[in-house]
Write a structure and sequence with these properties.
This protein has 154 residues and is an alpha/beta fold. Helix content is 31%, strand content 14%. The protein contains 4 helices and 5 strands. Strands 3-2-1-4-5 form a 5-stranded mixed sheet, covered by helices on one side. A hairpin with a 2-residue loop joins strand 2 and strand 3. Helix 2 packs across helix 4. The chain is globular, with a radius of gyration of 17 Å.
Length: 154
């Protein structure tokens, strides 16, 4: 008799170092792109009720790379923050799809910075010096600023 044990990797995210006194910074509303998923799995994106996430990746990229051109988008990539908030009743799958869209926007930006595909960017081996340099060059001046808020509601 044999058995197979699935080994799930979970979410691959770089977490900041733990601090008992986390830094608090005010974020100008202009620099905040908001995605809220309620307990009914409805989406409120930039205060507009949406049926799905269609087009949100392009909207996020435009928001991040605005460089102060349009007054209703971020001042610059360093100040741009993508806020993802879900209610306690939000389905896990819906939250993950939204998070994937946000990260996907950043990966597309990074890949374009160095002239490779997003898939190639995601597959860079950071243990190889050449890949690490490409990774650092791609991310230069564009931090992945994703704020995941505490769940609220039921």
């Amino acid at each position: 008799m044999t058995t197979v044990i699935n080994n799930y990797k979970g979410l691959s995210m770089m977490l900041p170092a733990w601090s008992n006194n986390p830094p608090v910074s005010d974020v100008n509303d202009r620099n905040l792109f908001k995605i809220h998923i309620n307990s009914e799995n409805s989406l409120l994106i930039e205060d507009v009720l949406r049926q799905d996430l269609a087009g949100v990746r392009e909207e996020i990229k435009r928001f991040i790379l605005n460089h102060g051109k349009e007054n209703d988008l971020s001042e610059n990539p360093i100040k741009a923050v993508i806020s993802l908030k879900a209610d306690r009743g939000t389905r896990h799958e819906v939250f993950i799809v939204a998070l994937n869209e946000i990260q996907g926007a950043y990966f597309e930006i990074y890949a374009a910075q160095v002239g490779i595909t997003p898939g190639e960017f995601r597959n860079l081996d950071l243990n190889k010096i050449k890949d690490r340099r490409l990774y650092d060059q791609a991310r230069k001046g564009i931090p992945m600023n994703i704020s995941i808020a505490e769940p609220s509601g039921k």
